[in-house]
Inverse folding.
């Protein structure tokens, strides 16, 4: 079992909500030396590599009934409630708002921007981790 597998197993019981992902940075440097001057890590604005250890289920939107009727009326003004055109339009809209799985999965090595993530420290281990939305990730490294 590698170090990455142990990290993933540790986070297995945890599931982030919606489209959030938990990323463990591969390098955990507290200080950065630039030209002999020691700068805090928070000053660095470069993206960081990390391993995705937990992934949320995705985002599902719900449209209230009154708004659904108004939306259908704007898209297809001639569709009367109960007609085939109305039902077809409603199905198309509902399919568009179903939760879609995220593009990343547990174990992916990703590039993420450190400045948009919510950084936390794990209570039991003291390890630093980043929580961010999946659409904020910059890329996934090929294996």
């Amino acid at each position: 079992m590698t170090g990455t597998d142990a990290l993933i197993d540790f986070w297995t019981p945890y599931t982030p909500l919606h489209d959030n992902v938990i990323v463990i940075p591969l390098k955990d440097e507290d200080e950065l030396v630039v030209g002999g001057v020691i700068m805090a890590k928070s000053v660095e604005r470069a993206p960081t590599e990390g391993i995705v250890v937990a992934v949320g289920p995705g985002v599902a939107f719900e449209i209230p009934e009154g708004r659904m009727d108004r939306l259908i009326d704007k898209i297809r003004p001639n569709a009367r409630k109960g007609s085939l055109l109305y039902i077809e339009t409603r199905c198309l809209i509902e399919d568009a708002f179903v939760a879609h799985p995220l593009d990343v999965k547990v174990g992916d090595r990703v590039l993420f921007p450190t400045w948009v993530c919510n950084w936390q420290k794990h209570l039991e281990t003291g390890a630093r981790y980043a929580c961010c939305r999946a659409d904020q990730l910059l890329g996934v490294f090929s294996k």
